[in-house]
Amino acid sequence: MSPFKDLSQSTPKAALFNLAPLPMDTDGIAADFQRYYAHTLGRDRDCKSAYYPYKALAIVLRDRLMERWKRTRQAHDEANCKRTYYLSLEFLMGRSLSNAMLNLGVTDEVRQALYDLGVVYEELESAEMDAGLGNGGLGRLAACFLDSCATLQLPVKGYGLRYEYGMFRQLIDDGRQLEEPDHWLRDGNPWELERPEYTQRIPFGGRSEMYTDDAGRMHHRWVDTHDVLAVPYDIPIPGYRNQTINTLRLWSAAATDEFDLGEFNAGSYPESVAAKNSAEHITMVLYPNDASENGKELRLRQQFFLACASLKDVMREWIRLHGRDFSGFADKNCFQLNDTHPAVSVPELMRQLMDEQRLDWDEAWAITTKTMAYTNHTLLPEALERWPVRLFEQLLPRVLEIIYEINARFLSEVAARWPGDQERQRRMSLIEEGGEPQVRMAYLAIVGSFSVNGVAALHSELLKQGLFRDWYELWPGKFNNKTNGVTPRRWLAMCNPGLRDLLDEAIDPRWVNDLKHLEALAPKADDAEFRARWDAIKRDNKQRLADLVSATCRVDFPLDFMFDVQVKRIHEYKRQLLNILHVIHLYTRIKRGDTDVGAPRCVLIGGKAAPGYEMAKLIIKLTNNVAKVVNADPEVSEFLRVAFVPDYRVSIMEVLAPGTDLSEQVSTAGKEASGTGNMKFMMNGAVTIGTLDGANIEIREQVGDENFFLFGHTAEEVEEMRRRYDPNAIINNDPALLEVMGLLEAGHFNQFEGGILDPIIQGIRSPHDPWLTAADFDSYRRAQLLAAETYHDRDRWLRMSVLNTAHSGYFSSDRTIGEYNDDIWHLDPVAPLPAS
Ligand code: 26Q
Fold it and tell me: Is the CB of 425 under 6 A from ligand 1?
């Protein structure tokens, strides 16, 4: 039933849904802002909090998104177009205010309106909490992809979870990481729209049984389940100045209104209501590990909750538009799995098609394997997801049955292809036997998908040769590469207004949605006047960075020092330790009066450690201890400053990327799948010091060897070296490293904290050190010296800086998404309906 009269009967002008478009000019925006602030939110001049004016402005923008959002949805329905669903446990969106202004094309109008009203925009901007619904690269990639899909007008919808608590807040106390919950929804979220009418029921537990239908056919059903409700909240995703608004749909868990009848009848009304609580826990908190945390039941619940709710949502839409005929389903739908986290979608789609829509196995399998596509984000074998079979059995008994059936059919295919090769069958089985049997999620994703991709050229090659070798032999055509990218809207136009204005003036202003135009900057690297303007913009950006460091770390960063930055999750393979060893080396040189270090530098490190990852936490402590010694020594701080920026997150990167001179990308070769921070720094004119790992290789190809500081062993050499690795011999033969180790071992950086750094020292000296830190030290030190000397030559450096931005166009996520679409999704762009 609809509460509205049949609208086709009423005159168009009178219709409830016929609204005049909202004004996009300064005065119209100012008037709406005033009304929301005073009437809707009920605040006046006495209100001291920046939150309410922020909220008033958010509502102003939201209204303008809303009208375009509806038109986009209607256009997708009317076009009856193919769609892609990006399934991800993480969407690291950061802030939305400036992004909405930029993409709606009202930045100048809003700023003028606020200026006229005497409101300071920067205060409102910083009142917004980051939406920290992700750990790091994988989550931020999902957010950049949504921006590009909307900008390219592709009908792509994101599906994720609405965690009450996002990524923890990091505090630093006595140099150590402390975690605090991130209750980001406390003051409400003006960007979300609750859609209770699209609630779905998600089953857990119970058992599977067989039954015969009226036509005498056998089916399975999942019964005696404990159901949880999934309530969707929609977030608008604006394209860049193109009227398109796509959707990110986040599911929130809620209890059903059914009582536990046992408790209820026993007279325990409060207990029976309280029991409903546990259902809501499913979406309470984001898991703060950026490598898989194995075996946690709640995490598996989250994964199934996302998969089941999203697939049911797509089914409901399909049935609304096409009825129960699924023959065209695979031509119109595609599911992109962001790593294996949503891989349970493979058996769950089978279950919904067979048990709920009554398709037979072959029909359902044909649909599943024509719609699922899987992206891998890791090369570390220990990070591959595995779930105990026992857990699946308890939580998702019917889904496990389907996994077994998929496995049985798959293994007979392997047996037919390689007769008698039992060892291969064991290796490729979806179930890992021995000890506690486990479900191998990556294999489940590969079997169920028509496309498997890595996220940088090297990574995709190494997957084929290593981790997924057997699978590549079986299905070479499934494997492909999609080198990551980042959105130039947030990571250039929004975060670097100084550079944005210069680019608008110097090159084709369409660079914002066609980043290849940046190439036109290259000849300007030779123009002295242009370099001077470039330099001035970088200096302003360094001032903003220095202000942030001063406010959050209480360390002064002089603007004429080289700003050397490494920000990313703290992980041994990312080798923050190598960076710190180099800092200690500079310290020893300066102390000995050898101050000819090329250029003075400020080293900034930031990032979160998984709360249970002790070595990562110790690396944070070491950084802070070294910073304390260096900064407190007036002799040293003339040439070197060190700081650790607490609570690194999206909104911090928006300040760091524009102000950085030297970008640290120093992972052990063959370990970092791609990296995306490397691309953000490059776009903003930082020069990279890096290994031949992940997308660094492609960055160096684009910018040219002479504009990149390369060091370290290659992935191939790393594997070769492992067998005969002798770090102590390397240390004894390298006076610089020997001196650094000597200081560390003498306790110079832990004077009153005896022994705390021992695990780090032992790690470096161990012949089993998987990250080969000692092996790359000398080459790193030389590359650092060259970087500092080059920095000293201002013209040389500025040229390199300009050329880095000029050749960064390839790393736009628009290029990446274009490739996903050409090779995997095959979607047609759809323009929204015109405003009536
Ligand atoms: C899995 C199971 C249980 C709990 C946690 C997890 C989990 C969560 C997050 C596992 C991995 C992640 C995140 C991985 C990640 O961010 N990988 C990075 O992805 C980037 C985008 O492709 C790459 O650029 C980086 O190289 C890669 O490290």
Answer: no
Intervals of the chain under pLDDT 70: 1, 5-15, 259-265, 275, 836
Q: Whose CA is nearest to atom 19 of ligand 1?
A: 138
CB 675 within 8 A of CB 664: no
Q: Choose, from 140, 398, 459, 569, the residue flagged as catalytic.
A: 569
Token pair for 106: 């009202």
Q: Is the CB of 285 under 6 A from ligand 1?
A: no
Ligand 1 atom closest to the Cα of residue 90 is 9
Give the Cβ contact number of residue 205 at 10 Å. Answer: 13
**Catalytic residue at 469?**
no
Residue 756 · residue 750 · CB < 8 Å: yes
137 CA to centre of ligand 1 in angstroms:
6
Q: How many angstroms does the Cα of residue 342 sit away from the middle of ligand 1?
A: 13
C-alpha of residue 135 to centroid of ligand 1, in Å: 7
Give the separation between CA 39 and CA 37, rounded to whole angstroms: 6
| Largest distance between two CA atoms of the chain | 91
Alpha-carbon distance of 564 to 550, in angstroms, equals 16
And the tokens for 421? 């090769």
**DSSP strand pairing (479-481 vs 451-454):** parallel
Question: In a mutational test of the pocket of ligand 1, which residue from 378, 648, 666, 813 has the highest number of ligand atoms less than 8 Å from its CB?
Answer: 378
Is any atom of ligand 1 closer than 6 Å to the C-beta of 338?
no
Choosing from 482, 500, 542, 568, the catalytic residue is: 568
Q: Find out whether the beta carbon of 291 lies less than 6 Å from any atom of ligand 1.
A: yes
- Secondary structure letter of residue 216 according to DSSP: S
In ligand 1, which atom is closest to the CA atom of 289? 5
Tell which atom from ligand 1 comes closest to the C-alpha of 484: 22
Q: Are 347 and 355 in contact (CB under 8 A)?
A: no
Active site residue 377: yes
Strands of 438-440's sheet in order across: 386-388, 438-440, 431-432
Grouping H, G, I as helix, E, B as strand and the rest as coil, residue 161 is strand
Question: What tokens appear for 636 in the block?
Answer: 């040293």
Question: Nearest-CA neighbor of 108 among 183, 214, 187, 24?
Answer: 24
Tokens of 131: 């939406």
Question: Which are the contacts of 420, defined by CB distance < 8 A and separation ≥ 6?
Answer: none
Tokens of 195: 């859609």
In the 8-state DSSP scheme, what is residue 352?
A: I
The pair of structure tokens assigned to 473 is: 């032999």
Catalytic annotation present for 826? no
The active-site residue out of 312, 377, 386, 571 is 377
291 CA to middle of ligand 1, Å? Answer: 6
CA distances 725 to 146, 377, 721, 772, 806, Å, are: 44, 28, 6, 8, 40
From the alpha carbon of 673, which atom of ligand 1 is closest? 26
What strand order describes the sheet that includes 662-665? 640-645, 601-606, 562-567, 662-665, 687-690, 709-710
Instruction: Give the integer Cα–Cα distance in Å for 566 and 378.
Output: 20
Secondary-structure percent of the chain, ordered helix, strand, coil, rounded to 5: 55, 15, 30
Whole-angstrom Cα distance, residue 290 to residue 247? 26
Contact present, 378 and 428 (Cβ < 8 Å): no
Probe target for ligand 1 pocket from 167, 341, 377, 491, with the most ligand atoms within 8 Å of CB: 377
DSSP string, 588-652: HHHHTT----SS-EEEEEE-PPPTT-HHHHHHHHHHHHHHHHHHH-HHHHTTEEEEEESS--HHH
Q: Is 672 in the pocket of ligand 1 (CB under 6 A)?
A: yes
CA Rg value for the chain:
28
Give the residues across from 645 on adjacent strands.
606
**Residue 796, CA distances (Å) to 60, 532, 802, 806 in order:** 46, 12, 10, 15
pTM comes to 0.97
